[in-house]
Specification:
The complex is a heterodimer of chains A (262) and B (279). Chain A is α/β, with parallel strands linked by helices and 262 residues long. In chain A, 43% of the residues lie in helices and 23% in strands. Chain A folds into 2 domains: 1-81 and 172-262, Rossmann fold; 94-170, no CATH class. Chain B is mostly helical. Chain B is globular, with a radius of gyration of 18 Å. Classes of the chains: A alpha/beta (262), B mainly alpha (279). The interface between A and B is large, with 43 and 29 residues.
């Protein structure tokens, strides 16, 4: 296997006296879907916030494609090729879906304020290129019919997809998905799984996925990282994780009961 | 006739400043209780240039605009870099506005609290032409990629940053653009009223600008423009109410906020004039 795209080494983050993440190391292999699971409060979202520089690590390093991300602002991390969705959906609510998806593309465009003031040909070309690219992404993810609706008016499932579309519009090499299946029923979750696998292929992204829906994780992840209380509990292939007694004890056991109860 | 013309011209001049606050508050989502300071800087820069050195009016207007833009950097760089939340920024800029008033009252070039008497250079042609250019350029800016970035920050700063937007630089750009519009408005105002003094650019005026934007609709250009016209004309139209004029004005604001909490136009535009929102 080639070198990993994301290398997390000895990552720790303290909040006051609480160790949210402690000595965590793991990799995300290029071109694969890596699952990040663990009980509530294990520190999974904190890991996302550390990777995207929302929080600064107390210690440890995060490397993307061999480059250390330390000291970058969140928007710089995004430009280095990381984008994400949020556990509680964060859309540009009063903007249309098209505008939501165009925004990251336009944020990267190069024309300056003066050219924009006078609407120069290059400014207009950037706008139309951004619009075409946004449509292409929305078509791939299956939300192009909603292009001109305000984001807040979409049903929940489509809002999740729109958020993924906006993250894809950042042209990431690494896409972080934070509980994309939360609040979805089984058939919606299955469809979401197909969407994730498709975008991994179509947009050539490496995906790191936080999810509580174990079926989804087992179906689409090539590699799974299990966290408990901020630390690494286990990592391996879905089969290895399923068999790991520590994981079953800490996490899967309870969820297996819940699943059979459904 | 002159009386009515004068009121309309003052309304036009006020619209330019409201346009500036609409860019910053309505589209970028940051509240400001100090934009009258930028009007004042524009007024005093242009006024001092024509008063002391007989500079051509167009140069005075551009200088007023430039000074307002530059001075916005003084307050914008430290406060916006610190990612102060919107309400903290409003307070910080309030302090800036009051500090400026004290400066204006104590400088000799501004003639202190006695004010500057100026020539009445802002005729109908100047005012209308400058308003038209301001509207056109503002519309272009808001339709451009910067408009999209401003609005995304208003909607959700965290998500905007995760869309690759540099919050500091984008907010600062919005502030400078809005301050420049206010500066232009001030330069015209000074040479319309032919007299300026520091007390004309205080919190009361900042609040009026902000009220126009909120009552007109955040994220709209036409709404605040219409409201600012109404707010300028109304006190004149209601002169017969005498001392009840100001309560009537307040009542209007309260009524708008109760029946249209999203403002007159909400997040939309009067179609035809500005189709900015429907790309």
């Amino acid at each position: 296997m080639s070198e990993p795209l994301l290398e997390v080494r000895d990552l720790s983050r303290m909040f006051g006296g609480i160790r949210a993440v402690e000595g965590l190391s793991f990799d995300a292999e290029r071109g694969r879907v890596t699952g990040l699971i663990g009980p509530n409060g294990a520190g999974k979202t904190t890991v996302f916030n550390l990777i995207t520089a929302v929080y600064k690590p107390t210690s440890g390093s995060i490397r993307l494609g061999g480059t250390d991300l330390a000291g970058r602002r969140p928007d710089e991390v995004v430009r280095s090729g990381v984008s994400r969705t949020f556990q509680n959906i964060r859309l540009f609510n009063r903007m249309t879906c098209l505008e939501n998806v165009m925004t990251p593309i336009l944020a990267r465009a190069s024309c300056g304020p003066i050219a924009s003031l006078f609407g120069t040909p290059s400014a207009r070309r950037e706008q139309s290129e951004a619009r075409e690219r946004a449509y292409a992404i929305m078509r791939d993810i299956g939300i192009e019919e909603s292009a001109h609706r305000a984001a807040s008016t979409l049903p929940y499932g489509l809002q999740r997809k729109l958020e993924i579309a906006r993250a894809i519009a950042c042209s990431p090499s690494l896409l972080l998905l934070d509980e994309p299946a939360a609040g979805m029923n089984d058939s919606e979750t299955r469809e979401l799984g197909e969407t994730i696998v498709r975008i991994r292929h179509d947009f050539d992204v490496t995906i790191l996925l936080i999810e509580h829906h174990i079926q989804l994780i087992m179906n689409i992840c090539a590699h799974i990282v299990v966290m408990e209380r901020g630390a690494l509990l286990a990592s391996g292939s879905p089969d290895e994780i399923r068999e790991d007694p520590r994981v079953v004890d800490a996490y899967l056991g309870r969820h297996r009961d819940r699943r059979s109860a459904r | 006739m002159d009386y009515y013309l004068n009121i309309v011209l003052l309304a036009f001049i006020n619209m330019i400043a409201v346009l500036g606050v609409a860019v910053f508050t309505g589209f970028t989502g940051l509240f400001s209780l100090g934009h009258a300071a930028f009007v004042g800087i524009g007024a005093y820069t242009a006024g001092a240039l024509t008063y002391h050195w007989d500079v051509p009016f167009i140069i005075a207007i551009l200088a007023g605009m430039a000074m307002a833009g530059l001075s916005s950097l003084i307050i914008g760089i430290p406060t916006l870099r610190a990612k102060l939340r919107s309400d903290y920024f409003a307070i910080a800029i309030l302090g800036f506005g009051e500090a400026l008033r004290v400066c204006l009252e104590n400088l000799s070039i501004t003639n202190g609290a006695r004010g500057l008497s100026l020539d009445e250079l802002s005729g109908p042609v100047w005012v209308t032409a400058v308003l038209a250019v301001s509207l056109l350029l503002t519309r272009n800016l808001l339709k451009s990629r910067f408009g999209a970035m401003f609005m995304s920050i208003r909607e959700d700063p965290v998500a905007a940053e995760m869309a690759g937007i540099n919050l500091f630089r984008t907010r600062l750009l919005s502030l400078v653009a809005s301050a420049m519009l206010c500066g232009v408005s001030g330069a015209l105002l000074a040479h319309r009223l032919a007299f300026i003094q520091p007390v004309m650019f205080t919190l009361t005026q900042s609040t009026q600008l902000l009220a126009s934007v909120i009552a007109g609709g955040m994220g709209s250009v036409s709404g605040p423009i219409i409201i600012s016209f109404v707010f300028t004309v109304l006190p004149e139209a209601l002169r017969w109410l005498d001392m009840w004029r100001l309560p009537a004005y307040g009542l209007l604001l309260v009524v708008i906020m109760i029946y249209r909490p999203q403002g007159l136009m909400g997040y939309r535009e009067i179609s035809g004039l500005f189709r900015g929102r429907s790309r």
